[in-house]
Fold these 3 entries.
Entry 1:
Amino acid sequence: MKMTKFDELQDKLVLSPVACTEPSRSEVMQRVGFVRWLSILLLLALALLPTLAMAAPSPSPLWLGPTGLTAEETSVARQGPTVRIDPAQSIVGAGKTFNISVMIEEANDLGGFELTLLFVATTVKVDSVTVGDFPGSTGREAIAAVNIIDNQAGTVSLGVVTVGSAPGASGTGVLATVTLTAQGSGESFLNLQDVTVLDTNAQRQTTTVEDGVVRVGFAIYLPLILKDW
């Protein structure tokens, strides 16, 4: 009987078994050793897991910053009040008397302040400095502990404290009014230095300062318009 190719292939598969060899003793020991070390590592990881969980810091709420404040509260805390000269620019004629104000914006529980005003003594002179209504606007008594005018050096030193049981003023207002007289042509800076703002607990607040300038003797000419009546 003639064999087909399928029969020949089947005979070859039956007559040619796949060679199988048993692993050597050293190979078995290596596999056992690997499994043993892997088991030890897993046990160590399970033992350390509770410790790592206790050491991990608990997450803060997403809406709180690192200080525990909301984003809006952190922005306000960082901003602090602004102390500025108002108006920032003045134009006056020689010999004229004029006023400038020392303003505060974004005040929070104002308890006191101190500052130094610098000016050009050959261009302007300071006649007087009065404490504004704002420091005592909540019922606290505002006391000018320091009020020194030096027209030779071109400086004004002012220090004000408030006393009382009422909260400090908050918001925007006038800290002081300065009356000056222009005594020569030219330009004088009106610079604020050594500005300190305190709350009613005597805590210093971060302050932004904006200076001013006055120009003396600058005339403004308006055009002359002639009409036929």
Entry 2:
Amino acid sequence: MCASFFSRFTRPRPNIVESPPPPSITHGAGMQIPEYRNKPYFLVASVEMGNTTTKCILTGVSLETGMSYVINKTVSMSRDIRPPKPNETVFGATLDGTPLTREAVTELVRDTLVQCHSEVHLDIQKDLDFVVRSTGVVAEMESPDQIGDFVIALANGCLVAGVPPRKMTPPMSKENQPEKLQPFSFADKVVFVGAVAGVIPPVGSTGVEMVANEMEGELAMAGIKEGAKWTGVDFRNPCISVDFGTTLDGRITTDVSPDSPNPFARTVGNFCGLAGAIPDAIVRGTGLVQARTGTALDIFGEHSVAGGLFGGGNRKVVADFVDRCHEHIDIRIVPADRDRFGRVPVNARLALESGIAMIGCDCGTNSSDMDKLLAIGAEIHKNHGMSTLNEVIDRVCARMALRLIDVAVEKGLVPRNASIGFTGRAAISGRKPEYILEGITERNLFDDPNDHLVFVDDGLARGAALMGRCMNSLGKPKNPIGGVRGGPCIMSRRIKIGK
């Protein structure tokens, strides 16, 4: 038999990071206590309200090792938020049209935060160290006022749940930090300048002016960098970080010269538009989920699976459906005259003037071709069954991811020392990681593609924990996240600049 036949069995497995539970300490016969109750841990709650799910993920960072663990996760469907009451003002909606009021969002955030802590018997006021709030729902907002209402509602939910305001903002000095954090803090040696995971936001802007869900992109980048610590991949700058949630976000960062006076990488690219909303549309066409609010999660879940020799369904049939879907998927640099791309508010002209490559993903023009995907989904389910549907969705999403990387390559933003990371359900579930790794390998971007590619679950929650660490200057020079691939920690350069 030829070598290519045996290569099917020996192909490298993608680096997929799934949240490990925190270590335990054994006390007496069979009694185990979580390590975070006895040792110094930095506990961060990530509160995310997305278009599909609302989550509170409680993360514990060991201050001795710098490694992060998921202590508990509470997830609900955003479509299940209570309907507006007669005296409430609807200020926006999710991507599937679920109406939102400030009061309803506040209650949902409060309940999710309280439930997440009570399930593991932790006290919000005594045990929690920091809270980071984020949302992807701003992608469907019409104005800054609506975004402001949403941010206020998220903050109010945290306050009503009992989170003190000081646990949502950076401390003014080391003396203002809790005593357990002070021995591990560099707050008296460095100044927090807004850089997270060794990267500064787009030059001349907070990023919000360029794309509505910029903060999600920042957290995803930070979370992928943290998650990669569980693999052998040195995922530091330059890097391409892509979050494939319901909507698309992410960042592209630069390399940094060792003799550069500024140790931080610059943001030179953003991702925006649609991601998981595209497989959701295909699934809704089958009639197996709710017509307006159903998602691919309802059928296939969010975990990755290891494939056999072949995917589901007939290869030729699957390839034909994938091609037909991608005829309606528009992936490119967002034109300067567009103020929305994939329904996400953008300032493409500012991005162009700032030298930022804004790479977008749409279906038609602002989702105008979604009905075409519904029809394709109906045809697949009627004539070919679930295995073909599953395979088509995995292949469609993998090709979307690879087309995004192709655009970045065309713009010269993927050097040989870059790393590529994905998070979000539309990139890390099913066999998508396997197919993305195959595509990256075929493109010959790296000598060892698997050493430059990672897939990380709960990217936003990991990023929230890392953002909290950055705001509190809780770096680990022996286990750095900032700096460049193969290089040293940048803490000494930051301390020198501070002096």
Entry 3:
Amino acid sequence: MPPWPRRSAARSAACSDAGPEGSRRLARSVRTFLESLRLQELATWCIRERAASPRQRSDMARYLITGGAGFIGSSIAEALLMRGDSVVILDDFSSGRRENLEGLPGSWELIEGSILDPAVVSRAMKGVRVVFHEGAIPSVARSVENPQATMAAGVQGTTVVLDVARHAGVRRVVFAASSAAYGNTPTLPKVETMEARPLSPYAASKLTGEHLMRVFSLLYGLETLSLRYFNVFGPRQDPKSEYAAVIPNFIMCAIAGKRPSVFGDGEQTRDFCYIDNTVRANLLAADSSRKLEGQVVNVACGERTSLNQLLKYIAELTGGGQAPEYLPARAGDVRDSLADIRAARELIGYEPTVDIREGLKRTYESLKARG
């Protein structure tokens, strides 16, 4: 299977006397150029993929993405639209961003509302064949601060989505689970059969979501699959958020010449997974001819990187960077993470195609162009 298309970068130089307005015009031009190249490459990839792997679906299938204005949800939407599908995006914009939806091609509909509202979810679910359930409050730190909100969205919201899906005749629900479910179990790599030991309300809500997927498959025959994401990163992540993920945070600090903050000693490790790998896993799950009955599979790259090593990689990309400020470790954070991805390979044919170094390069180019 060919790799997910690369996001190309343009190199431009501004005249020294262009001034602030000239710099802004240059940045806008670079962003437009990058986006046009990326969409051309994505379209080419989708055409090749359609010809090489006919899917078990009719053309212009209709998909629902809960949390579709978020980083991962909007990336899935773009991939579906580029291959000619119809997409419904459901989001209440509590964490999703409207700018993630700008420039999406093809046939899509936005429904603004909460997954906690059965009437809204029912309206979004009409005519839908497959649901990508990405909706959640996506932060360990926020869940520690406000566990009730996290559990309401993650548990009750997931129950609403599944219950409406079974009544609406949806064929399959693909769930955004999390590697946070493993907790701090010392064994590496993490295998899906290991005992789950969640350390935060966020992790507990995601683990409960996995159980709900199995129950609805067992009781009602609704096909479900839980994809345990491992530290997904990429261009659409919000680097300005108070809860920004570590990679966009580190990159923006390097660009701005600021000291990044590291919680702990920096030797904690993560299995960082570039967004295009995660998107491919979701499409493979949606299109699989296999019977999906609530299984759980890891989605990652199968390699681990410490935060200190990550900072070195970013310094190489940016040509510099300030020494980090080491702060006390945060409650609920996991020490080490590394995925065994054999189950995903065997069940849906998943293979990562973009490693961390290439993913960092693409993310850096995108964030730099955005300014």
